[in-house]
Amino acid sequence: MKATEINSILLENYFGLIKNLSPEIKLNLIEKIITALKDNSTNNQTSIKKAFGAWKSTESADEIILKIKESRNFNRKIEDL
């Protein structure tokens, strides 16, 4: 299947879901879609950061690694059997 065919099928499925909604709900949905399209450019960057995380720090990578290594605790106690 081509991407256009898949998109067309998805569109038909979504339309099947919303065609029986009331006109008021349809208008609210249209407003939300318009707002999402307007905010898409700025929202795209933040959604990527939310999905994969982002580390903000003024420390360098070497300083962070050193802190992690220094904070390690090895209190391994082996019990006799």
What does this structure look like?
The chain is mostly helical and 81 residues long. It has one domain. The protein is 70% helix and 0% strand. The chain has helices at residues 3-18, 23-52, 61-71. The radius of gyration is 25 Å and the shape is elongated. The termini are far apart. The model has no long low-confidence stretch (mean pLDDT 83).
Quick rundown:
It is built from 3 helices and no strands.
List keywords for this structure.
mainly alpha; elongated; 81 residues
Mean pLDDT: 83
Distance between the termini: 63 Å
Q: List the total number of helices.
A: 3
- Which segments are poorly predicted (pLDDT under 50) over 5 or more consecutive residues? none
Class inferred from helices and paired strands = mainly alpha
Helicity level: over 70%
How big is the Rg? 25 Å
Shape: elongated
Strand content: under 5%
Number of domains: 1
Total strands: 0
How do the helices and strands follow one another from N- to C-terminus?
Answer: HHH
Q: Name the quaternary structure.
A: single chain
The main β sheet shows up as: none
